[in-house]
Amino acid sequence: MHALSPAATPPAAGAAWKESDFDIYHQYPPHILYTFRDKDAVFREAVTAYANVSVEDEPSGLHTDPNRVLQLFQLIAAANRLPAGDYVEFGSHRGFSLRVIHKFMDPARTLYSFDTFEGFDDRDISVEQQKYDTPWTAGSFAPTSMEQVAKYVGDGIWPANLKIIKGWFPDSYRGLEDVRWRFVHVDFDLYQPIKAALERSWDQLLPGGVVVVHDYGCYGFPAARAAVDEFCDAVGVAPIELVDRWSSAAIRKPLR
Questions:
Q1: Is-contact 177 157, C-beta < 8 A?
Q2: How many angstroms separate the CA atoms of 235 and 253, rounded?
Q3: Cβ atoms within 10 A of the Cβ of 55, count?
């Protein structure tokens, strides 16, 4: 893991950070990873695959965010200890984080994936435009396909425990109202689908279930934070901002 040294001098106002500014010292990994070698091997495989995505496929550079993989490792481990339930990602794009979740989850359970696989929908962009002066448009983010994502997740084959659902959310959620969730990952980027994913999945989340919302601290998607905060205020829970590059938010459902 890389972090900014306390001794590092911040750039002058208006100057850009360089990647080397964040490579000052190395943090020791969690004790579990050098106590249990099998867990270390699973983690290393996942973070290596995540970090090796090409810039052409992901211009933001996944290699700069190993903390995101570590957070998923720990939070999914907590979800794996819950009573029987499944796993879901809302917003999978090309499957980069979906692959990580699949590697860390209970393999006896099912992982669901929701996406348009055609970029942002005009209905969501129209809501986003009411929130702030957004540069995003319908179709932003390169199109992909269910088959491409499934084979990436499964190292060339579509895993039997992976169900991919294409379409605009929340319409695409119909028929799944009785599934119980252990772990929910929301990476829809935009206000309306984030809010809808939280509202649809919360009642189905097991007590102690884990929700992670990506981009909570991403200023390219400022309405993501508003969607999370409004939802959490409505249900009476508090999000915890995490330390990955775009500051995911973690929410754990009360046990009682």
A1: no
A2: 10
A3: 10
For residues 237 and 254, the answer to whether their CB atoms sit within 8 Å is: yes
C-alpha–C-alpha distance, residues 161 and 155, integer Å: 14
Assigned token pair, 85? 């339930």
Is residue 207 reached through a cis peptide bond, with omega within 30 degrees of 0 on the bond before it? no
Q: Quick one: which of 117, 104, 123 has its CA closest to 192? A: 123
pTM (predicted TM-score): 0.89
Strands 249-252 and 25-26: unpaired
Q: Which residues pair with 86 in a beta bridge?
A: 181
Residue type, 180: R
Closest CA to 248 of 202, 210, 217: 217
Q: What average pLDDT score do residues 24-40 get?
A: 81
pLDDT tens figures, 62-73: 888 889 999 999
- The beta-strand segments (E) located in 19-85 are 25-26
Q: Does the structure show a pLDDT above 90 at 166?
A: yes
User: 122-131 and 223-235 helices cross at what angle (nearest 10)?
Assistant: 90
Q: Which of 189, 174, 172 is nearest to 125 (CA)?
A: 189
Backbone angles phi, psi at 133, to 5 degrees: -80, 85
Helix (H) or strand (E) holding 128: helix 122-131
Residue 178 DSSP label? T
End-to-end CA distance of the chain: 35
Reading the block at residue 65, the tokens are: 């965010």
